[in-house]
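Quick log. Single chain, no ligands specified.
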Amino acid sequence: MQKTLEKEHTIPMQNHNELLPFNTKYFDAININRSAVEKRVATLGGRRSVKKEFQAAWLLKAISMIDLTTLAGDDTRGNVMRLCEKAKNPVRADLLQILGMENANLTTGAVCVYHNLIPYAKEALKGTSIPIAAVSTGFPAGKISLEDKITEIKKSVVAGATEIDIVISRDLVLESKWQELYDEIKLCRQACGDAHMKTILATGEIPTYTKVAKASWVAMMAGSDFIKTSTGKESVNATLAVSLVMMRCIRDYYELTGVKIGYKPAGGIQKAKQALDYLILLKEELGNDWLTPDLFRFGASSLLGDIERQLEHFVTGRYSAGFRHPMA
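-> predicted structure:
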């Protein structure tokens, strides 16, 4: 198992995306065929599967790509501290030992919290290389002024966040105000400084895949290091179909610029089987280079518990109760 899984617990992010000057020529002609996209992803589960030790290895890899998240209204210092302990030790020690991974220093990809909880995460993660991601810019709706968005980003960076997840003004997408969207994201990118920026499109609130694709292009052109599906608060969050659209935009952007943009599906990914489907789609569409925490993250909270249950099943042949894999 040690040889099957590459060690990816340190997360050396690539250099920042250098933005492209705004020009609609890059996306004017995009017109996404919804039925073709949905047909493509509907066949995924039947065409691709991984079993036994290979599945265990993929699930361990998936853990290293989780932005372990708590974004509840009742978040406290206590549950952030517990979340960080789980990020540092995501799988029970006895399971890791049986899997031959006890010395792999496996951690999650990051911890994601609200701005005011950054100091607690920083305290709990001291001495580790686990990044702190902060949701910013009026998360989750983004209904604050651009000036306030910029201020919030800067405060999060000063507080210790090394990754910033921003939310765009959805109305700019709905009304096809691409220049304004580009300008907004560009200013957010500048405010992030050395922190990496993930741009949340809230795809569940965008009515067509064509607009999802155009918003993805604008976000990448404006300097986003990652594009992300959702806040997790929408009625529809990450789906394989919208992921296919966004991954192909990332692929086209890479072919044009040579820059690899990261991808983060978030919200509703709760089961290990779902995680495998996303990783298989990622491998098929973008290749092995994207199978690292540098370029792919799951935004999730309960996913880790189910992955740990599946790993215990692989080791023992039995499924365990959820309380055997607590957050800490």
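The chain is about 45% helix and 10% strand.
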